[in-house]
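Form 7-S
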Amino acid sequence: MGWVEQDAGQWWEAARAAIQAAASAASGARVVGICVGGQGPSIVPVDDRGRPLANALIWMDRRTEPERRALGEAVGLRPVLIVDVLGVIVAALAVTLSPVRRLR
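Output:
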């Protein structure tokens, strides 16, 4: 329960396809910028060439709830709901600080 992962390779392929489609649709027009957005924070472990080593642990993943609570208490934060921006930031920090191997 609480596992929410996504394949970061699929994100990259979808972004590439969308950019190629947009460039084709521009049909010779001058392109002045491209923006790719997403939801976050998400953690993607990568190798030395930037290739994903595992699925991305996205912000909705709840496996680090104990770490999130402990970290929040350690820095003096009151308990917050996940929809609270502060709670999302603390949850992201907990995921970052937790060993990825333990979560697998």
